[in-house]
Design goal:
The structure holds 2 protein chains of 2 kinds.
Chain A lengths: L10 H11 L1 H30 L32 H37 L1 H16 L2 H18 L1 H6 L5 H29 L3 H8 L4 H38 L9 H12 L4 H29 L8
Helix pairs in contact in A: 1-11, 2-3, 2-11, 3-4, 3-7, 3-9, 3-11, 4-7, 5-7, 7-9, 8-9, 9-10, 9-11, 10-11
Chain B lengths: L1 H9 L1 H19 L3 H6 L5 H10 L21 H10 L13 H36 L4 H14 L3 H15 L12 H30 L2 H9 L3 H24 L8 H7 L4 H11 L2 H29 L1 H4 L2
Helix pairs in contact in B: 1-14, 2-14, 6-7, 6-9, 7-9, 8-9, 8-12, 9-11, 10-11, 11-14, 12-13, 13-14
Classes of the chains: A mainly alpha, B mainly alpha.
């Protein structure tokens, strides 16, 4: 009696097996888990104070302990208002993750749907969508982000519905995410379009079409699972970029003003660095450094595991 | 070739119009009446009305249908296009200076920083990428890759702040602020190279490695060509095409690339002007720099395509 073969291993299982063997990738995953834990903690602190309508600990000024270097009570020292720098950096982690998530909520739907439409249907649809992303892609990223953030700031200040929205999301955070979201989809859209062009004439798509599956069904139920890994890789490599851009936006004055994002902390530290207060800068920079390093290295490993063809030949 | 050239150049027009339209939508329609922003926080309604009239913000957006047919194009968008075609970019609201003059003034200082920065970054990055590729999969390669990623993980703002404080401030090796001689450019350029080289090395290494596994390399190796000769006279030459593309695409960023460097070191370039224009809400400056930056990018893109078509006849026929 011939043995029925087991269910073949899925792409994800194979990729996970490969990642497990990669010690560096596992180390990075561990680091990312630590950051996620800090994020949940900071989110907890933030929302408890919101619900109780109290001022959270990281926002309370202690003028008697201003500008203190790192000590046993304050591991990362205190800032000009006597706020504990470690608490601020932890909140910065929350902001960084919120930026990553909120921006992706804009980038992924727009980039994926437009890319899928362009790649799957081709012809006119493709021309229009290609034109659209060529236009957006032509405007230097940072300039477009500045322009959008600047405009959104104004809109939030004037509109009443936006005002209610900012009770849940900081207005600076909102404008930063909207700005980075509406510029960031171009890269993903290009990649997804390319993948759909590759897939649209494959046999399984042809088979689905013969069976009478609708275009939407083919696009999102049949092809989408095969290109989903692109979204994940793209996310893990875009996230560091978002964090770094936020710092520049803070410097330019279109960033987050009321919450201690890493960009805001670094910009606050700017003047005090000249008084010799290096710890404010060091805290946020170190926090950013390890997160971005882990994300970059893990993203590379993920890409190698999920999409061997994209890998450079080594 | 002429037909291709013409076709490619003509395709710039719709993109340029698209960029104009998009920025117009952003600033004028979503952003609301700019006069309110221009007039400042404590402006009287009369003042706002006056600015609105002066700058034509009370006109229709696209077509003035009411005054058909004589003043059909007496609307904001057509007037903007006309103005830009004439090279009139408006004036700064803070200094009342013509934006065109501001651009001309800021152009040279910007180039002084970005051109050496760009060239140094490029040579250093390609040299290190070749080194990494030559020693691929050894500790040299791994060290270079890890160092590159580490370099990419620090904000450029931090590089600037730390270098300015220690190298210029505490140790006094470089001047801290100003634009009075070549020595004022040393530190900004150095920081720019250090901050940017990591990403470039990683990128060029991939390109060189992709080339290394081509058939012609195997043939050369089989013939007994020395590894160094393969790297420099075979691989590098072929890798130059993607490298060149990347270089040309990066060129427009020369003009805003040193946004942060210029403002930290007091170099009166385009980047610093933009940084100062943002908190003041100086729309004409922001608008013009955005538009011209995009146009440079589109032109650079077109140039790359033409260079490609010139080098590879197959592209022309598509």
């Amino acid at each position: 009696m011939s043995r029925v073969p087991d269910k073949p291993e899925s792409l994800w299982a194979i990729a996970w097996r490969q990642l497990r063997r990669n010690r560096l990738a596992m180390l990075c995953l561990g680091i990312l888990a630590v950051y996620a834990a800090v994020w949940f903690y900071a989110e907890g602190v933030f929302w408890t104070s919101r619900i109780r309508d109290s001022i959270p600990a990281y926002k309370i000024a202690h003028y008697d302990i201003r500008n203190q270097p790192p000590s046993r009570e304050h591991w990362l020292g205190t800032n000009y208002a006597g706020k504990d720098n470690l608490l601020l950096v932890a909140q910065g982690t929350r902001i960084a993750f919120e930026i990553g998530l909120l921006t992706s909520l804009i980038v992924i739907p727009i980039g994926f749907v437009l890319g899928a439409l362009a790649g799957y249907f081709g012809r006119r649809t493709d021309t229009v969508i290609t034109y659209l992303f060529s236009v957006v892609g032509s405007i230097p990223d940072i300039l477009l982000i500045i322009a959008i953030a600047y405009v959104v700031h104004g809109v939030v200040e004037r509109s009443a519905t936006m005002q209610t929205l900012t009770r849940f999301i900081d207005s600076g955070l909102l404008s930063v995410c909207v700005a980075m979201g509406f510029t960031g989809w171009v890269g993903l859209c290009r990649l997804i379009r390319g993948e759909y062009i590759k897939h649209r004439d494959r046999q399984y798509v042809l088979a689905a079409r013969t069976l009478g599956v609708s275009h939407l069904g083919i696009m999102f139920r049949h092809i989408a699972p095969n290109v989903l890994h692109i979204v994940i890789i793209n996310f893990s490599l875009r996230f560091p970029h978002l964090i770094l851009t936020e710092v520049i936006l803070s410097f330019l004055g279109v960033g987050i003003a009321n919450e201690p994002s890493w960009g805001a902390i670094i910009n606050d530290a700017k003047q005090r660095l000249w008084l010799g207060n290096w710890w404010e800068l060091a805290g946020a920079t170190a926090a950013m450094f390890f997160l971005i390093l882990a994300l970059n290295l893990f993203g590379d490993a993920l890409r190698d595991a999920l999409d061997p063809k994209l890998r450079s030949a080594d | 070739m002429t037909a291709y050239l013409l076709r490619r150049l003509l395709s710039v027009i719709p993109i340029a119009l698209g960029v104009l339209l998009l920025t117009f939508l952003l600033f004028r329609i979503i952003g609301g009446n700019p006069a309110i922003r221009l007039a400042g926080k404590n402006a009287t309604p009369e003042k706002i009305a006056q600015i609105t009239r002066e700058r034509g913000y009370d006109k229709p957006y696209f077509l003035n249908v009411e005054n058909f047919p004589h003043q059909l194009f007496d609307a904001q968008f057509p007037r903007l296009v006309g103005r830009l075609l004439r090279g009139d970019f408006g004036e700064s609201i803070t200094t009342r200076q013509k934006v065109r003059d501001i651009l001309v003034e800021g152009f040279w200082p910007s180039l002084c920083v970005t051109v050496p920065l760009f060239l140094l970054n490029l040579t250093l990055a390609i040299a290190l990428a070749l080194l990494a590729a030559y020693y691929r999969n050894t500790w040299v390669d791994r060290l270079l890759v890890v160092l590159s990623v580490m370099g990419m993980s620090v904000s450029s703002l931090v590089y600037i702040m730390v270098a300015q404080y220690w190298l210029a401030g505490e140790w006094g090796i470089f001047p801290v602020w100003g634009f009075e001689g070549p020595q004022y450019l040393l530190l900004p350029v150095l920081i720019g190279v250090v901050a940017g080289v990591g990403g470039s090395v990683r990128f060029y290494r991939t390109i060189v490695l992709d080339e290394m596994y081509q058939d012609y390399v195997r043939t050369a190796r089989a013939k007994g060509v020395s590894p160094a000769r393969i790297l420099f006279s075979h691989v590098l030459r072929n890798a130059l095409i993607p490298i060149l593309t990347n270089v040309i695409i990066a060129l427009p960023f020369l003009y805003t690339g040193s946004l942060l460097l210029e403002s930290f070191f007091g170099i009166p370039g385009l980047g610093r002007m933009l940084v100062m224009a943002i908190p003041n809400g100086d729309e004409d400056v922001i608008y013009t720099e955005t538009f011209l930056g995009s146009m440079l990018f589109v032109l650079a893109n077109t140039l790359t395509d033409i260079a490609y078509a010139w080098a590879d006849p197959r592209i022309r026929l598509r």
